[in-house]
Design a protein that fits this description.
Layout (H helix, E strand, L loop, with lengths): L1 E2 L1 H4 L8 E2 L35 H4 L42 H4 L5 H10 L16 H6 L8 H15 L2 H9 L5 H15 L6 E5 L6 E6 L2 E7 L8 H19 L7 H6 L8 H11 L8 H13 L4 H8 L6 H12 L16 H11 L6 H6 L8 H4 L17 H14 L4 H7 L3
Parallel strand pairs: 1-3, 3-5
Antiparallel strand pairs: 2-4, 4-5
Helix pairs in contact: 6-7, 6-12, 8-9, 9-11, 11-15, 12-14, 12-15, 13-14
Pfam families: MATCAP
Cofactor: Zn(2+)
Keywords: Hydrolase, Metalloprotease, Protease
């Protein structure tokens, strides 16, 4: 693990590239070279720790409308990542096209948010984008699925039945927010467990739209962690998600004959998603006493409803599950991104991949070779048995939490029980 001193105080450097999307395609046109070890270093405990509640952080706005690298905080634990535009160093010549996820973020989102709240949620935002969103992308994610809506609603209700509100669930299961020194301690211990100390640059920032995001910066794998999302009982789960799943599978993937797009075609690989995000999402909650799949379930439900509702109607519909208006706004923006006139039904369905992947893995968990799934890299669980004779398994990394496979499998069973998932129902929904 390497500390990025420039990021420790909350102002991380601009990312020079984003990692490939989980299905092997790139969300950025900029190249992402294979990770290489960075020089080792010892993290310091920075001064000036600023601690914000996640709900309160979601309501903050930047002091300057022109600010690029810093801005309004989002509810960090509520949502996965939406990439944010950042100024590129050097400008002019050699500038790369922006990340797709940046292109999907409305450039007037702050102004529309203010108007939406000013008009007491009775207004449908009219979003503008810095560049036209590629029609092929919108077409790919235009249609929402309702296949697992019943399971999503059951998970949501299970949380509310136990905790009353999402906000109470967050406090009860997430624990207290951690100081920077405490965060560094957890990170250092986790990196040692995975044997990757010195390989990943770690940034602590208050300028991220999610709990964490892995990226490539200066040709090095970099993990940015949101200070307002680092909770006592959730931080290690985030590290299992980003490092123990995405990073380790990515490193293993670089050794495989299918590491390139041409190789994936040669071996007729299925997309890595929904396996990639499903597996990472399961690992996020793996050892929680109450491993509820709230976030994946609510995203799935929100997107399905967005495909049939306007923005304002969707916002009203979500009130039955989330009282905090700032958090609801964020879910609605995610579901409606890519749209210009949000008074019309429509969605961007990519975030349904989390629950989709989770349920497919849980359905087939008794027949999946999980250590091999990690060792083979960015592959679908459906391809594991076919690929094992071709895989380069020497020196493959296996996440430390998979070493005790019996315990790992019991935890997956616990997730099924906690979320009130019905085995027979999953077999009927996913017969093969």
């Amino acid at each position: 693990m390497v500390l990025d001193p420039g990021a420790a105080g909350g102002q991380g450097r601009s990312g020079l590239g984003a990692l490939p999307d989980r299905d092997g395609s790139r969300l950025c046109s900029c190249p992402s070279p294979p990770p290489r070890p960075a020089a080792s270093g010892s993290p310091r405990c920075p001064r000036g720790t600023r601690r914000l509640s996640e709900t309160g952080a979601g309501m903050r706005r930047s002091g300057s409308a022109g600010a690029v690298s810093r801005g309004r905080m989002r509810a960090a634990a509520s949502l996965p990542h939406i990439a944010r535009a950042r100024a590129e160093e050097g400008g002019g010549a050699g500038r790369r096209s922006p990340c797709l996820l940046v292109a999907l973020r409305p450039r007037n989102v702050e102004a529309e948010r203010e108007r939406f709240f000013r008009e007491r949620f009775a207004y449908d935002p009219q979003f503008e984008y810095a560049e036209p969103v590629p029609e092929a992308v919108l077409e790919k994610y235009r249609d929402a699925s309702d296949r697992f809506v019943a399971q999503a609603i059951r998970i949501i209700h299970a949380v509310l039945e136990k905790y009353g509100t999402y906000e109470s669930f967050e406090v009860a299961t997430g624990g207290r927010l951690l100081s920077k020194c405490q965060i560094w301690s957890v990170i250092r211990k986790y990196m040692q467990k995975e044997g990757c100390a010195g390989e990943v640059v770690v940034q602590l920032t208050d300028d991220l739209l999610s709990q964490a995001v892995m990226m490539v910066e200066d040709s090095r794998p970099t993990l940015a962690i949101n200070l307002s999302g680092a909770r006592q009982y959730w931080l290690e789960g985030m590290l299992r998600h980003e490092i123990g799943t995405h990073y380790i599978r990515g490193v293993n993937n670089t050794r495989q004959p299918w590491h390139s797009s041409e190789g994936r075609k040669q071996y007729s690989l299925k997309p890595a998603n929904p396996t990639e995000e499903g597996l990472a999402s399961l690992h996020s909650v793996l050892f929680r006493k109450q491993p509820f799949l709230w976030r994946a379930a609510l995203l799935y439900y929100t997107i399905e409803r967005a495909s049939r509702l306007s923005f304002s109607a969707l916002f009203q519909d979500l009130e039955q599950y989330v009282q905090d208006a700032g958090i609801r706004w964020e879910y609605c923006v995610r579901a409606k991104r890519g749209q210009t006139d949000t008074s019309q039904p429509g969605c961007f369905s990519k975030d349904q991949v989390y629950l989709d992947g989770i349920l497919r893995i849980l359905r087939h968990r008794q027949t999946i070779d999980f250590p091999l799934l990690a060792a083979l890299g960015k592959v679908s669980y459906e391809d594991v048995n076919r690929l094992k004779k071709f895989g380069v398994l020497e020196k493959a990394r296996i996440p430390h939490f998979m070493q005790d496979l019996e315990r790992y499998m019991k935890q997956l069973d616990h997730i099924v029980t906690t979320n009130q998932l019905d085995e027979q129902e999953l077999e009927e929904l996913l017969p093969e």
